[in-house]
Every structure is written in structure tokens, then in C-alpha cells.
Amino acid sequence: MYAVVVGDGGTAEAVVERLIGEGSDVGIVASKRAEEMAARFTRALVIRGSGSDLESLAAAGAREADTLFALADEEAVNLAACVEARQVFGVDRVVAVCVGEDNCPAFRALGVDVVVTSVLVADALLDRTAVGGQSPR
Hints:
With 137 residues, this protein is of the alpha/beta class. It has 6 helices and 6 strands, in the order βαβαβαβαβαβα. The chain has a single domain (2-127), classed as Rossmann fold (3-Layer(aba) Sandwich). 40% of the residues lie in helices and 21% in strands.
């Protein structure tokens, strides 16, 4: 599988690490920490740029990608990356983080396959920790 990951924060790093660990080839579009990402993930193709930029996505391999993960800190970048992945590059599966829950319907309307919100992430974290006397799973 070939995946493009847009973003260079903690969520993007975790996704890249898992993808590489599972044997996937990965292209990364990093706007702020490209050098750090390249040093950490030597098996990945790292492009300094914005996920909202067609040239950056193309350079990261969006034309060949099976999946695009839009995990940037900026919702507008994620939305643009999703639209371009689907409409310009024909990526089969598009996954995005939606920062503001009010905007999640826009992601879904554009055909994003999986939309994850910060509330969903918080719920998952709480489910995995000892809350209310429950043991971690």
C-alpha cells in the first residue's frame, strides 16, 4: 500500500510510524517539521510544503496513493487535501481529522471516507484509561 500523510504533528507521526511498521510505503507533506520527519522516517518520502498545494501532494506521490491521511493542524489544509486527493488524484480512500465538529458534515459531503474528530479521540483516550474506577483495557 502507498499512503500520503499530510501533516507533521503528533497524530501524523503516529500514523506514519504505524504505516511504515506494517510495511507500507509513505509520502509525507510536512509544512513545519520536514527535516525532523525526514530524519526520523528514513523510509518515507518527505516533501516540505502544504497539503493544500497540488504540487506538494503530487511530489509526495498522491497520484500513486491508495490512501491519503489529512492530519494537519489546520482544518482548511485538511479539507483542501481531501478535495484534491479525491477529485484531482483519484485517491481511493481519504481519511481526515476534523478539528471543529461543526465542519465535519462538509468533510463527509465531499466524500471523505473516515472523519475523526477531537471529541472521538478524547473518547477513545478516556476509554483506554482508568476513569471512574474502571481498569484500562
